[in-house]
Every structure is written in structure tokens, then in C-alpha cells.
IFNL3 protein
Amino acid sequence: MLCLGFAPLLALVLGASLGAAFPQDVLKKSCSLSKYQFPVPHELKAVQKMKTQFEAIMHQSNRKCNTRLFHRKWNPAELSVHDRMMLVEAELDLATTMLGLSTAPRFAETRQQPLAFLTQAREDLRGCLAMEDHSHQPSGKLRHWLQKLQVAKDTETTGCLEASVILHLFQVLNDLRCTALREQCT
């Protein structure tokens, strides 16, 4: 016969009872994107510096791109909060991928701080999405944009995707800010 002492048995019973008393969602890490509501000025300056330097490089190379990925006929404020989170995650994923691939030696150092900031934002947002309802289906607007994003990834040159991302980084940051506020922004 198995003989357990009173203290270990009590600990076992209490542990099982407390585990059942608290829903698993309470035990999960909380989702907080509040630090993206108002990014610190040095992060915004780093993004602006990178954008300015990139525009100068692009002007010198006379690169012409027709990527209109960030030209949408709808405003992200029209989306549900969950759809906005999915939109911003896709935007941040594209941005971090393109900044991570950049091979222009003169541009390598300038992109490091924005890349680190955007990578952290993407990871924080993914953490929040992991806590959300996994059965959520994106709206038609978002689904269409995600398809447009996939087509652009498959058909556009890396240089054009990089240019589109960098030239629209402040739009991505505004979408992130509005998602962090969890309210309607314009």
C-alpha cells in the first residue's frame, strides 16, 4: 500500500485544487503594447534618419518601383482590433525581413536601431496574438491585403519591396500605435 505523509498529500491536493480554480488565461503573460502608443523620440529619429539616408541612396540609383502595397482604399481603423493586430504583424514581419536583407554597406549601420525596434514590436505583437482567439478569421479587406502582400513577395524585387517598406515605415508605426491604443485612429 502506498503511504504518503500528511504534508505532501495536502500539498498535492491543494496544488490540484488551485490549478483548477484559476483559469489558464490568468496564468499567461499579459499583453501590453502600451510602449508603442508613443514611441520614444530617439526611436523615431533613428527611423527618420534611416528613411532620409535611404531616399538619398534611392535617388542616386534612379530605382523605379511600382509597388503599391501600402496604398489601401481602406483605413486600418475600419478593421477590428484583432484584424489590426494581424495587419500590423504582417507589416512588421515584412519590414524586419527587408531591413534584415539590406545589403547596401552605407546603409547597414543606420538600419540597426530601427531593425531592433521593429523586431521587438513584432515579437511583442506576436505574443499578444498568441493569447487571442485562434479561430478568428480575417475580414475580407484584410484577407485581400494579405493576398496582395503574398503576391508582392512572390513577384516584386527585393529592392522594390525594401523601398516600399522604408518609404512607408511611418505608416507602419502609426498602424502599430493605433493597435497599441486599441481604439479607432485615423
About this structure: Residues 73 and 141 are 9 Å apart (CA to CA). Helices lie at 6-21, 24-27, 41-61, 81-101, 112-131, 140-155, 158-167, 169-181. The chain has a mean pLDDT of 80.
